[in-house]
Each structure stands twice: as C-alpha cells, then as structure tokens.
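Work through this protein:
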Amino acid sequence: MPMPENVRLEAEAHLDRYVVDLVPPHARDKVRIGYVAKGMAITLFEQRPHWKEPSIWAQSDVVRVRYNKSSGVWTLYFRDQHGKWHVYDPLPPTPDFVKILREIESDPTGIFWG
C-alpha cells in the first residue's frame, strides 16, 4: 500500500532540497545521494563508481523512514553491516519530517554517514 500522495509529495519536496547540497560540486563524479519512495517507506541511498568498472555505479542504502498512516508519524531506521534495518531509538517517531532530516544531517551517533 502506498503512502498518501500528499504526504509523499511533501516528504519528497524536503528531500529534494536536502540531497541537492549533500555532495559538493567537485565530488559529484565520485558520489551521488538519492532516494526512492516505495510503499510506506522512503530510502536514502549513496552511489559510488564501482572500483573495477567506474562506469557502473554501486548503490548502498543508508537511511530508511517509514510512514505510519494510522498515527501520522515517521519512524527513522538505520541499516546494520548485514543489511538489516533497525529502529533508530534516539529519535522517537514524529509527525515532523523535517525533524527526521535534521537528525540524519546531524548524525550524532555516526550511524548514518559514518
């Protein structure tokens, strides 16, 4: 089931502004940051050229946020070294998507961007 369109569009508008400045212009041939919305979740990912074949970009998921339609809140998730998603406990679920982005950007635990 997809998230409500107005919720997705608002989140994507915030994400569009967020990801555009994450990678400085001089590094854009080495790293890309993007996102994909699927179902009730949005996943931020990082892409880098494959070390053997630089024309192929390898993608690594970094952050996931999941929308709960019944409560109207977003929950933030991080990915462990085995690719499993876990709830990010330092930030409780919130209806404020911008608050989620601030937490990802500040990354106080170093769990998202390292």
User: Anything to note?
Assistant: The chain has a mean pLDDT of 95. The beta strands are 32-38, 41-49, 57-68, 73-79, 85-87.
